[in-house]
Amino acid sequence: MKLITAIIKPFRLDDVRNALGEVGVNGMTVTEVKGFGRQRGHTELYRGAEYVVDFLPKSKIEIAVSDELAERAVEAIVSAARTGKVGDGKIFVSSIEQTIRIRTGDMGDSAL
Ligand SMILES: Nc1ncnc2c1ncn2[C@@H]1O[C@H](COP(=O)(O)OP(=O)(O)OP(=O)(O)O)[C@@H](O)[C@H]1O
Ligand SMILES: [Mg+2]
To answer: Domains in the chain, please, with CATH?
Structure first.
């Protein structure tokens, strides 16, 4: 199992969620976060105006998927989140040791 953490532009969130639904992702967690990348927030535009602070609003998506689904999920995020401008975001992929569905006690892929 993989944990895919994607930091994206908030206005791309609906499209990313729909794209992930199409590849068969069963659940996700979304958090509104602030961050900066290489431009340190300065030269990046947000809602048409240059933002005056270092941190820019971003949406963080966390999805746990089977190893089999991980590549397709990453591709779906990239194509739905990309605008081609700076600040499009980043995707981090890490390994999950175990998943447990609390209601049933299911473990591993069947708990996803
Ligand atoms: N190395 C990092 N570690 C943790 N979070 C990061 C890192 N780089 C970027 N982020 C997060 O991703 C968001 C978007 O980053 P961003 O797309 O601006 O990266 P970048 O490397 O500057 O690429 P670009 O040149 O395309 O803007 C940041 O606001 C921050 O929340
Ligand atoms: Mg940047």
So the answer is: 2-111 (3.30.70.120)
